[in-house]
């Protein structure tokens, strides 16, 4: 029987000219379109120079006007700092002109700094400034309306603690874990190769290595670009089991063990659902499925890559815990966790009951907020499905604390993390660390053009077009990733010290206050319910979750009984 050879990873070949491109590939045509202004200016400048000698010297004026633009185009193409200029020479410089005059025009023509969605200009600007090592302090006080609903702040101490200079770390790994991992309090969240281009993946991994944090692979699996620079990796295993699957799409223990034992893989994360499209499965549009991606994932070329909406390796909460134990053993004792966007509360309690029943717990749980998500998703799912991060994080915290499991299971938050305060607020309600996706995309140069799913990202972040990816220089952007991480963690350290504390793990709900009306404010522990240890085991009927707890079943994701009133017959 012939022995199957290991497939080699090859760069995606350029499309051949056919009925739609007799003389050049679609990629080359795209390059000509993007460089059309630069080419036109260069050609007209040369023609005007020749005409100035051949006919009339007035053409020399045209040449003198256009020649500086030619120099600008040459500079744009050869510089490595700005990917947008490398991909759109000359015309791309117009963006930077508007960027410079925007603060002045905004007063009369444009929106304010808090009005944009999903990330307002203020949030993006702080990421850009910190990534570039630029000034991030603001003059003249806050621009926020402190009397508006939803305004939040942290309480401070009259005896602040010294600002910690050592990076904050969190040890991940319960009593069943043989190889615990020391994680940073801020890490690169799940973004797959394919959704992001190779240069973006390389820059994120190199930046994570420099910063001392981990880089989550996303469910697209381990690619050569995740491993090229040696940064710490958390391998996310979704329902498609990419990189650890049989031909029929089921989980392959042998293939998983081959990769999970790699020293660069520090933890394994089972993805149950994600904030952008919970209950839907991951989506990689066909336009972004190159031959290389198809080979890495083991999927057909030219078709949408849609992960199943549920796992085939288990069908009950108890079986999921057994799968966690299996992955922990196959990986050589590394921490294994789960990631989910919270849906039915009874299912969260079913997971907790399964942990108690089997005696098996994941080493960590990542809660993804419904407001998160970097990939393509149907509008209805993105806008109206899943629990927002804060409510989901508190529910998961209460499930773990209420069953006495919190000391074994670490808890992480993922969703719209852009600053030290967003991290501190998550940690105050129970998170041990935070993951960020879109903020790190901004540090790579993302300008929120909202074209992530089309394969035509102008900054080369979410595209596999080699010409567009050329604009993203790995070493340059990796430094910005590390800069953003360093400055954000330092901002967190300053907040923690101002509160009179030594570590973010000391933050509690009463350290964050929320304005519920123009004349009323409350600490978070007076707005949300925070259960004491063992409450769900000792006296579940005395908690607000009594009905959901009774409905939860360790042996089924379906509830034992209906929660709430039934539909009229």
Question: Can you offer a commentary on this structure?
Answer:
Residues 185-501 form the Glutamate synthase domain. Helix content is 38%, strand content 11%. By secondary structure, the protein is α/β, with parallel strands linked by helices. The strands form four sheets. The protein has an eight-stranded parallel beta sheet with strand order 4-13-12-11-10-7-6-5. Strand 5, helix 8 (224-227) and strand 6 (233-237) form a beta-alpha-beta unit. Helix 7 packs across helix 18. It starts with 25 loop residues before the first helix and ends in an 18-residue tail after the last helix. The model has no long low-confidence stretch (mean pLDDT 88).
Concise account of the structure shown:
Belongs to the glutamate synthase family. With 569 residues, this protein is of the alpha/beta class.
Rounded mean pLDDT is 88
Cα(first) to Cα(last) distance is: 63 Å
Q: Major β-sheet, in short?
A: 8 strands, parallel
What Rg do the Cα atoms give?
Answer: 26 Å
> Uncertain regions: pLDDT < 50 for 5+ in a row?
none
Structural class based on helices, strands and sheet pairing: alpha/beta
Instruction: Identify the overall geometry.
Output: globular
Please count the beta strands (DSSP E, at least 2 residues each). 15
Residues in helices, as a percent range: 25-40%
The percent range for strand residues is 5-15%
Number of helices: 20
Order of strands across the biggest sheet?
Answer: 4-13-12-11-10-7-6-5
Transmembrane segments: 35-53, 59-78
Protein name: FMN-binding glutamate synthase family protein
Family: Belongs to the glutamate synthase family.
Pfam family, one: Glu_synthase
């Amino acid at each position: 029987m012939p022995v199957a050879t290991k497939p080699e990873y090859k760069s995606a070949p350029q499309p051949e000219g056919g009925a739609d491109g007799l003389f050049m590939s679609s990629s080359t045509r795209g390059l000509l379109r993007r460089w059309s202004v630069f080419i036109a200016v260069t050609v007209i400048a040369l023609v005007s120079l020749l005409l100035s000698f051949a006919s009339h010297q007035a053409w020399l004026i045209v040449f003198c006007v256009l020649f500086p633009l030619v120099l600008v185009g040459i500079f744009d193409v050869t510089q490595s700092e700005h990917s947008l200029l490398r991909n759109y020479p000359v015309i791309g410089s117009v963006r930077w002109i508007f960027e410079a005059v925007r603060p002045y025009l905004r007063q009369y023509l444009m929106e304010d700094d808090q009005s944009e969605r999903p990330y307002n200009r203020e949030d993006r600007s702080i990421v850009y400034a910190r990534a570039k090592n630029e000034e991030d302090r603001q003059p003249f006080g806050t621009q926020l309306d402190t009397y508006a609903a939803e305004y939040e702040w942290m309480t401070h101490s009259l005896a602040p603690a010294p600002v910690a200079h050592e990076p904050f770390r969190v040890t991940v790994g319960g009593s069943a874990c043989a190889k615990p991992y020391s994680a940073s309090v801020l890490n690169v969240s799940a973004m797959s190769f394919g959704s992001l281009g190779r240069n973006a993946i390389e820059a994120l991994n190199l930046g994570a290595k420099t910063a001392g944090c981990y880089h989550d692979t996303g469910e697209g699996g381990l690619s050569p670009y995740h491993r090229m620079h040696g940064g710490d990796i958390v391998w996310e295993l979704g329902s498609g089991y990419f990189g650890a699957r049989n031909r029929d799409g089921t989980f392959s223990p042998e293939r998983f063990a081959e990769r999970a034992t790699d020293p660069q893989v520090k933890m394994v994360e089972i993805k149950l659902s994600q904030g952008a499209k919970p209950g839907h499965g991951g989506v990689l549009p066909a336009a972004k499925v190159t031959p290389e991606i198809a080979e890495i994932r083991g999927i057909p070329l030219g078709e949408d890559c849609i992960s199943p909406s549920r796992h085939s390796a288990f069908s009950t909460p108890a079986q999921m815990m057994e799968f966690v134990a299996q992955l922990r053993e196959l990986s050589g004792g590394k921490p294994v966790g789960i990631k989910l966007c919270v849906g039915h509360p009874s299912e969260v309690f079913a997971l907790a009951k399964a942990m108690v029943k089997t005696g098996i717990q994941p080493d960590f749980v990542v809660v993804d907020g419904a407001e998160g998500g970097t990939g393509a998703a149907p509008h209805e799912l993105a806008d109206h499905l899943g629990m927002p991060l804060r409510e989901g994080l508190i529910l998961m915290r209460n499930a773990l604390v209420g069953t006495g499991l919190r000391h074994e299971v670490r808890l992480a938050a993922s969703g719209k993390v852009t600053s030290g305060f967003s991290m501190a607020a998550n940690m105050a309600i129970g998170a041990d660390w935070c993951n960020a996706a879109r903020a790190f995309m901004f540090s790579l140069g993302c300008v929120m053009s909202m074209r992530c799913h089309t394969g035509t990202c102008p900054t080369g972040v979410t595209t596999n077009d080699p010409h567009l990816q050329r604009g993203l220089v790995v070493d340059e952007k990796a430094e910005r990733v590390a800069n953003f991480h360093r400055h954000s963690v330092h901002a967190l350290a300053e907040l923690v010290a101002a509160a009179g504390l030594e570590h973010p793990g000391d933050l509690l709900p009463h350290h964050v206050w929320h304005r519920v009306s123009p004349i009323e404010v409350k600490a978070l522990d007076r707005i949300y319910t925070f259960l004491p240890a063992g409450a769900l085991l000792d006296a579940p009927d005395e908690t607000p979750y009594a009905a959901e707890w009774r409905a939860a079943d360790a042996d089924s994701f379906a509830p034992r009984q209906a929660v709430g009133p039934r539909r009229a017959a």
